[in-house]
Amino acid sequence: MDRFLVSKVKVREGTESGVSRKRRKYDPDYLKFGFSCIGPDDAPLPQCVICKEVPANDSMRPCKLRRHIETKHQSLTTQPREFFDPKLNELRSQKKVIESFGTVNTKATEASYRVALRIAKAGKPHNIGETLPLPAAKDMCSVLMGEATATKLDAIPMSDNTIQRRISDMAADVKEQVLDAIRESPFFSIQLDESTDVANCAQIMVYVRFIKELDVQEEFLFCRPLPARTTAAEILKALNDFIQENNIDWSRCCGICTDGARAMTGRHSGLVKQVQAVAPAAVWSHCIIHRQALATKRMPKELHAVLDEAVKIVNLIKSRAMNARLFSTLCNEMDAHFHQLLLHCEVRWLSRGKVLTRLCDLREEVLMFLAEINSPLVKHMEDTKWVAMLAYLSDIFDRINTLNTSLQGKECHVFLAHDQVSAFRKKLDLWCARVERGSVEMFPTLEDVVEKTGLQLDCVQQVVIAHLKGLREQFGDYFGEETLANQWVRNPFSFPVTPRDGLTLQEEEALVELNSNMDLKQKMSEVSLAHFWLSAVEFPDLTKKAVKVFIPFTSTYLCECGFSALTMIKSKYRSRLRVGDDLRLFLSTVHPRINRLCASKTQTHCSH
Questions:
Q1: Cα three-residue angle 403-436-384, rounded to 5 degrees
Q2: Distance from CA of residue 540 to its chain's centroid?
Q3: Phi/psi of residue 362, nearest 5 degrees
Q4: Higher confidence at residue 304 or residue 95?
């Protein structure tokens, strides 16, 4: 026992048999045994400068170093320390070369990620990296900085498989950021739609709106294929599987926006009904743009006949290649503002108004062309009454397109959408009253036709009035005649509380206190509606109720934009593409953490 204590004291005092780690690291005499120290400060490692062997750290004892050189390098035992200095310098230079190559590969990996992100943002094929950006970058570098600089770009991995892996890594990182934000948000809402891609594969697309840093964020959530049918059960399964896989709480879903398809809105087994079974707080809203399109679809028989005949005229000219070329030549000769007509598409929101507007702009050229080819449709363009009704349709659908465009875009909450629809309904009443008085100045194309042809307005007055009144009734059917509830949310200092708002006594008292706060009143004029309510921490109950009012989506506009992107990315040349990762980077506004992804790469080989 005493012998053990004595040896332990000797080790602590730093004798030859127990040299401390700090002393072993900085002792310059170890070079005379052909050894150098490598490794971090807290764990130095020995390395032989001759054979590059790295024994255990305990081998730094002089006796063990001496044994190593005597057994493995016997011919060098008599060499002085100066003999090992060049060997040490050579070893250090080799390390620097290896570190430099590692640094170059790290930078090349980051460059590969950044190029892959640009390829995904542009929706281009994965193999474009090694066929266009890399050769173009090498050409520019060779011209501006020389061939030596251009050859360094060869270290950047740009193969199609590498780009695909980079895109998958960044998409996973973006998805993780979005999911983390959703889990931290007290409430979220979703909009979803279903469509078929170029490969006849049914795809369900979902966007999410949530709260982050005193603001409302809208992000792409996921796009998944439906294997068989597009029933409510299949759509719910795809949606619920994603929610469960990523540990999202259904109870915090306060809104779901869809179109009016039966699979979505069925009373007993529709998707909305099944979602509300697991998310009782979720309020369904029918896409306001779809409702607007449905409300403007019906029209009097006379106007519907004019629309059908106008589409026939356009198809006669535009759908036949030779007619399209001849008509374009005619427009050039007549110095027309446009040189081609537009084809009508029933499913596009703005198509009807744009087609009719272009036809009215080129009505003189169309009349001349139809007369030259002896088409029986020329009789319509020669009929002034028919042309007047065509001009009215052009004007009214141009106004409808303006309404449709105002309902599109991001961050459109229920109050903004309601204001746009309410204003249009009031304009319909105004226009109808003016037409009854014989004024059509709000329809400039119709007014121009009446002035140039000398047509009496009485010929089309009743048809126009009937159509405007019909629009007014249809908007009432689809949007209701009552005023929007919860107006206190948009401005608690101006709008009074009504019984329809469903506030409790405590919430009404809190609203009275807020209404009397002049600081908050000043703040509301300086920040957005969402920021105002999310920063009103003194009134948590009111904030919670207000958030549930303005956070639900009002339209499926983002899903429609997503399907347009899907059509571009998954084309007939890429029909087998698994489009989820590419679509996420293309549509998301969240930036992937490239530096973090590069740091996670333990292998610095150029192909990874």
A1: 80
A2: 31
A3: -110, 25
A4: 304
Please report where in the chains the tokens 């890594």 appear, as a residue. Answer: 169
pTM comes to 0.80
Q: Identity (one letter) of the amino acid at 594? A: I
Q: Per-residue confidence at 262, pLDDT binned at 50, 70, 90?
A: confident
CA distances from 273 to 203, 245, 263, 265 (A): 21, 22, 10, 7
Mean pLDDT of 585-598: 93
Cα distance between residue 487 and residue 407, in whole Å: 19
Pairing relationship of beta strands 202-211 and 188-196 according to DSSP bridges: antiparallel
The order of strands in the sheet holding 202-211 is: 216-226, 202-211, 188-196, 253-258, 283-286
Mean pLDDT of the chain: 84
What is the rounded distance in angstroms from the CA atom of residue 69 to the CA atom of residue 77? Answer: 6
Distances (CA, A) of 173 to 67, 167, 239, 313: 53, 10, 21, 52
Structure tokens at 466: 């009937």
Report the distance separating Cα 521 and Cα 212, nearest Å.
23
- For CATH 3.30.420.40, the residue range(s) in the chain are 166-287+556-599
pLDDT tens by residue, 360-383: 999 999 999 999 999 999 999 999
Q: What is the average pLDDT across 159-168?
A: 92
Tokens describing residue 564: 């347009």
User: What element of type H or E holds 497?
Assistant: none
* Residue 197, phi then psi, degrees to nearest 5: -90, -170
The pLDDT assigned to 21 comes to 43
Alpha-carbon span 111 to 104, nearest angstrom? 10
Q: Which two tokens stand for residue 190?
A: 């979703």
Cα dihedral sign, 428-432-433-439: positive
Amino acid at 81: R
Residue, of 260 and 31, whose pLDDT is higher: 260
Is the alpha carbon torsion for 488, 493, 495, 498 positive or negative? positive
Q: Which conformational region is residue 240 in: left (phi greater than 0), alpha (psi within -120 to 50 degrees), or beta?
A: alpha
Amino acid at position 283, single letter: V
At the fourth CATH level, the homologous superfamily of domain 166-287+556-599 is: ATPase, nucleotide binding domain (3.30.420.40)
Q: How far is CA 40 from CA 46, 48, 197, 601, in A?
A: 12, 17, 56, 21
- Predicted confidence at residue 44, as pLDDT, reads 53
